[in-house]
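Lesson 9: reading folded outputs for more than one chain in a single document. The general rule is that every protein is listed as its sequence immediately followed by its structure tokens, and records are never interleaved. Here is the first one.
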Amino acid sequence: MSRTRLSTVVFDAPDAHELADFYMRLLGYVLRAEEPDWVLIGPPFEGTALAFETEPLYTPPVWPAGPGDQRMMLHLDIEVDDLAEETARALAEGAKLADHQPQEDVRVFFDPAGHPFCLWVHTRQSRRKRRTPQ
């Protein structure tokens, strides 16, 4: 049987380079490849990469979404050791804290292009049931 693995998650954005820079700072990823409208970043060693493609007609999702709103298609869950410290760092890097926060061990943010992402800390409760933005 041939090997199959997830290699990259691709995000549309109004500016691929700007959004890639944000995630490189946030995650400690490095630049792997770039073109004028496309950027690939990833962990310094092996791991799933993130790519960003400039899409001039990009519309950011609304979260939580209401009827007729542009809904998110996916979001990143980023596990952290210290939620308060990493929340402050994410805000300093340019993330925006969402108004609605669904649980104590998770913080929902929007990246500079408006994609939701979560920082979460591993707790007993999160092991049992990990709720994510709906």
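And here is the second record, again sequence then tokens.
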Amino acid sequence: MTDTHNKEVDALSGVETTGHEWDGLKELNNPLPKWWLYVFYATIVWAIGYWIVYPSWPLLTTYTAGVLGNSQRADALAALEAGMAERAQIGSALVDASLDDIRSTQGMLDFAMANGRAAFGDNCAPCHGSGATGSLGYPNLQDDAWIWGGTLDDIHTTLKYGIRSGHDEARIGDMPAFGRDGLLDKDEIDQVASYVAAQAGLEPEAGVDLAAGETVYLDNCASCHGEDLKGMREVGAPDLTAANYLYGKSVAAIKAQVNAPRNGVMPAWEGRLDPATIKSLAVYVHAFGGGE
């Protein structure tokens, strides 16, 4: 509260003081700038107008709707519905179009890439990584090593039905557990692992009979992986000469896989994602550059 008894006029400025003094400094009672006052008054008028025109006053169970009856929530929902309708229209075009048509039609391609990018981040990135480079046990989708094929149709089929997913149309290619089930003994596993390693450009274990390893390979592995080790996509047998191995490229990793293979599972996205989104994902993944 201002002490009116201590007010005085400042000799230097000629302005009355407020009566407040701190360490010998006296506060001058200068009026506020008129422009500032006008702006302040304008904000008050604006606020009153806003209260009248727009929803603002809370009531017990609702709120005042305002003269205009405007609702930002209603506007947002209308915009969302309009966007979903537009998305559904373009999405329906994807459902009816072939994958090659989607890739060659700029409008559908743009939509498929945007839709696929979002779907990949939500559904695929947790396993394959945000950059689709994979990790141990999860394929790198940017290289050219495709166990089940890397064409648009191949990728679409894998996405739709999955791998060992339990779907009736799922891709299934189980490798026998040669060691665990007693199909090969330890020496034979050592031999075939070193033989495969040597053919894949790795250093085999010293002292291992590679000729015996070749015999073990031809008798037990060539029917799926081929005599040239290039694999067979029809049964999901990977190319053993490829640069990348799903579970590690070393003699020890090869031994482990021959002994008790890890047969990974990919979910079937049919029924989880709509057909347009699955096609979008196929186009998006194929565009990484590793697709065929």
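What the second record shows: The radius of gyration is 36 Å.
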